[in-house]
Amino acid sequence: MRIKIAEIHFKDQKIEDYAIEKVAKLEKFHPGVKLVTIRLTLEKNHRTQNHTSFCELEFDMVGRDFVIKDSERQIDKAIDKAVERAKRSLVRHKEKEVSKKHREATKVKRQIRN
């Protein structure tokens, strides 16, 4: 699995390393992931000190591509939320593939018996 990262409106090596470390752990949940693109964005509010951070994960997989986007005030929390949602989505997608293969195998067994 390859990981690309893009930071918009800020540059922080610690955050970049943190995001890569978290996303690299997702490889064990679905083996078909070829490429993950991480986009980290900081949106500044002009009147207040409250800034919004966005984390967008774009997965390029065999048979399906999807994007997960989360926002939070702190960038590390946004990364954590996006990774958790990605983990659930990857597991759900893998389970669907396994159940399809299982259904096809049972169909073949029934045809052989008859």
Structure description:
The chain has 2 helices and 4 strands. Helix 1 runs parallel beside helix 2. The protein has a single domain, classed as Ribosome hibernation promotion factor-like (Double Stranded RNA Binding Domain), CATH 3.30.160.100. The chain has 114 residues and is of the alpha+beta class. Helix 1 links the parallel strand 1 and strand 2. The protein has a 4-stranded mixed β-sheet with strand order 1-2-3-4, covered by helices on one side.
Detail the topology: elements first, then pairings.
Blueprint: E1 2-8, H1 13-24, E2 33-43, E3 52-61, E4 65-72, H2 75-113
Parallel strand pairs: 1-2
Antiparallel strand pairs: 2-3, 3-4
